[in-house]
Amino acid sequence: MAREKPINKAEKRRQNAAHGASRVSGSRRGSAPAGRKAVSRSRSGEIRLIPIIVDDEIRSGAHVADKLLDSLHKTRHQIQPGDILVIKHKIISKAEGQLIDLATITPSAESVSWARQYGLDPRVIELALRESRSVIRRKNGVLITETNHGFLCANSGIDVSNVDGGRHALLLPEDPDRSAQQIHRELMKQTEIAVPVIITDSFGRPWREGLTEFAIGIAAMKPLRDDRGRTDPHGYELKASVEAIADELACAAGLVCGKLNRAPACIVRGFPYQAREGRVSELLRPPSSDLFR
Question: Residue 213 pLDDT more than 90?
Answer without folding.
Answer: yes
